[in-house]
Structure formats: structure tokens, C-alpha cells
Amino acid sequence: MSAEPGTVRPGGRTARVRAAVLRAAGDVLAEHGFAHLDLADVARRAEVGKTTVYRRWGSVTGLVADLLADMAEQSLPREDTGTVLGDLRANARLVQRTLADPRQGALFRAVIAAATCDERTAEALRRFYDIRVAEWAPCVQQGVARGELPPETDAEEVVRAVSAPLYYALLTTGTPPAPAAADRAARAAFAAAAAGVYATT
């Protein structure tokens, strides 16, 4: 059975083609939004044949799904500062820098907007965040083991609580969050977790 378009992980020359196409797709999303993402235009920008793009990704949503998968793969690994608060601050600062980046911030806004009306894009976006949350959840689990947080603390919910206010600020004000907002989000999530807000029992 053939793989679903946009899910193949090729190597060699095809890996270079994939990288060029995904870079071009990200550029279009950042510059013009999801509504203007067109496979033929992406192929032209990537200097790749249209047939190759249509055959491999099949649709705009297939291309976005693969772009998000690639972004998850390329994301920086979590930091280990030795404390929960330090780790959560590092996570918040990473999110803040991403959203404040002119290209990355615009790209995320475009994908989030598309996810509200396209289920495949929404699924791809959920997978992206599942991967990122799973990457950072161990910092909370280690904090529990060190006695910094109550037992049965839901690690994934704590990580989500760090990012949530940063995304909310971006989407509701149109202004990228500042480093101070990242630190505030980390402190708030840590304080809530330490108070048992995210304990499952």
C-alpha cells in the first residue's frame, strides 16, 4: 500500500527536494497566509517540477502536514537547568523567541488560522504540539521526583500552561510576546503546579 502524500521520509536527493519545497511552503505561509498557498507556486519557488510536488504531497494540506512534521523534528531539544522553574523558563523563552521571529511567528499564525477550518491541518498541528509537549514533560516529572512539585502532577498540562498565555497574547493582540511575558508565564505555571492545581488526584 502506498504511503499517504506528505508522510514519506526520503533520503538523498529526494531529501534535498523535500527541504527546498518545505522551505518554500513556509515562506509562502509566512508572507501570504494559508489562503495563498499553492502547490504550483511552491514548486516554482523551490525550483522543483510541479509533477514532483503534486505526486509527493498531493494537496496543500498534505504539504502543511509535512511542514509541521519537519518543524517538530527540527525543534531544539529541551534544556535541563536542574530546577523545574528554570526548565519551564527555558521552555517559555523558546516559545517566545519562536513567536517573536518575523518568519516563524507569521507562519504559526497562518497554520493556526488554517487549522480552524481544515481538519487535516488541525490534526497535523496537534501532532506537532504533542511532540513538543512530550519533549518537555520530563522536566516536570524530574521536578516531581526531586520534591519540587506534588506527586501526580500532570506534566503535560504544566507544559501547556507555560505556552498558552504566550500564544493567546499573540493571537489576541497581534504583538509578539516579550521575554518578560515568557518569564511571567513560566512563574505562573510553576506556582500553580506547586500549589497542586495540576495534580490528577
TrEMBL record:
Transferase recorded as keyword: no
Superkingdom as given in the UniProt entry: Bacteria
Pfam families, sorted: TetR_C_11, TetR_N
Signal peptide feature range: none
DNA-binding region: 38-57
Alphabetical list of InterPro entries matching this protein: Homeodomain-like_sf, HTH-type_TetR-like_transc_reg, HTH_TetR, Tet_transcr_reg_TetR-rel_C_sf, TetR_C
Entry-linked PANTHER family: HTH-TYPE TRANSCRIPTIONAL REGULATOR RUTR, TETR-FAMILY TRANSCRIPTIONAL REGULATOR
UniProt-recorded name of the protein: TetR/AcrR family transcriptional regulator
